[in-house]
Amino acid sequence: MAAPLRIQSDWAQALRKDEGEAWLSCHPPGKPTLYGSLTCQGTGLDGIPEVTASEGFIVNEINKKSIHISCPKENASSKFLAPYTNFSRIHTKSITCLDISSGGGLGVSSSADGSMKIWQASNGELRRVLEGHVFDVNCCRFFPSGLVVLSGGMDAQLKIWSAEDASCVVTFKGHKGGILDTAIVDRGRNVVSGSRDGTVRLWDCGRSACLGVIADCGSSINGVAVGAADNSINLGSPEHTPSEREVGTESKMLLLAREDKKLQCLGLQSRQPVFLFIGSDAFNCCTFLSGFLLLAGTQDGNIYQLDVRSPRAPVQVIHRSGAPVLSLLKFKDGFVASQGDGSCFIIQQDLDYVIELTGADCDPVYKVATWEKQIYTCCRDGLVRRYQLSDL
Questions:
Q1: Cα(365)–Cα(340) distance, integer angstroms
Q2: SS3 of 327, please?
Q3: So where are the chain's domains?
Q4: In this structure, which topology does domain 85-388 adopt according to CATH?
Q5: Residue 332: which of 384, 375, 286 has the closest Cα?
Q6: Is 241 helix (H, G, I), strand (E, B) or coil?
Q7: Coiled-coil annotation: which residues (predicted)?
Q8: Can you list the residues of the chain whose pLDDT is less than 70?
Q9: Which helix (H) or strand (E) holds 14?
Q10: What is the pLDDT of residue 1?
Q11: 337 strand-pairing partners
C-alpha cells in the first residue's frame, strides 16, 4: 500500500474562498511525515476553485466536490471526495450503525442516545422511530425486501420491525449477552446473530425460534458475515439432518470476527470448521468479496485479505493507520473501509489511487452503507454523510 495522504477534513469549504488554505500530509511508513498545503488562487467561471499545492505535492484534477492529489516522491495518489450532503438532525449523539434499503429510498440508523430511526435516504427526513430495545442498539439492517428491519441490542434481544408502521413484529430471546452483529441468509427466512456471550445463533423468522447455536467460541463475536461458497470449497457435512425450517443455508459460509484475535470460518449448514486464522489483534468486522475471497479488519488497523482455499497466509495485509478498522463492505470490484481515526476510503482494482471520503475530523466512522453510486457513513460526531460517486 502506498503512503496514505491526508487532507484537512473541511477542505472543500476552505478552498472556496480566495487565498483559502487547507493542509495536506503524506505518511510514508517508517519515514518522517511530509507536510504541505493547498491554496485557492480564485474561482473559475464554472465555480470550480483554481488550487495550487505546496512543494512535493501536485493537484492533478479538481471539481466542486473532489480533488485528486499526488505526492510523487512517495508514489502516493489519492482522490478526496467531500460529502454531497450531511444529515445532522436524525440523531443527537454518536451514530453507531446504519443501513440503506435495497431500493435506496430509506435509511435506518441507531445511536448512542438509545434511539433507532428510519429516515428518507434522499434528505434525512425522519419517517419512523423504532422503540422497544432496552439500552443501546448495536446493529440494524434492512431485509432484502427493504420493508423490514433487523436489529440487535445490548439487551441481548434480536428484533424484527416493520419499516411501514414501526411495529416490532418479532423478538428473539436466547443470547446471554449483547448482540453485536447480524447477517441475513438469502431472502431472510433465516437470520444469524453474533453476541458478546461468544455464541452465534441461527433463527427462524417465521416461527421466531432459534434453530441452533452454530458456534460457541468463548470469546465475544464482534462481526458476522454470510457468503455463498465457491464450488471448490469443502464445507463439510452436517452431523444431523438440518431442520426443514433452515432455508438457504446449504453452500453458505459463515465468517466470525472474534475478540480473541481469531477469524473463524464455518459451513453454515454443516457447522463444520473451514479454517481458523489468527490475526494481530481483536477482529472487529468481516465481509466476503467473492465465493472465496474475504476481508477482515482488526483493532490495530490491519485489513486482512484471505483466500478461503489457502487461508494460512493472507493474500495481502493493508495497513493505513493504527486506528481500529470498524467497517468493511464490498463495493464494485473493490471495497470501502472505515476506521477509528475518521478515515474512510475506497480501494478498487482498476484504480491506481485511493478514493478518500472526507468530512469526519478524527471522529470514528462506525459504519458504511452503499446504494448504487451513493455511499452513506455514520460517525461519532452524530452526522450521516452522503457521498455521490458521480461527483468524481
A1: 6
A2: strand
A3: 5-81, 85-388
A4: Methylamine Dehydrogenase; Chain H (2.130.10)
A5: 375
A6: coil
A7: none
A8: 1-2, 392
A9: helix 11-14
A10: 58
A11: 328, 345
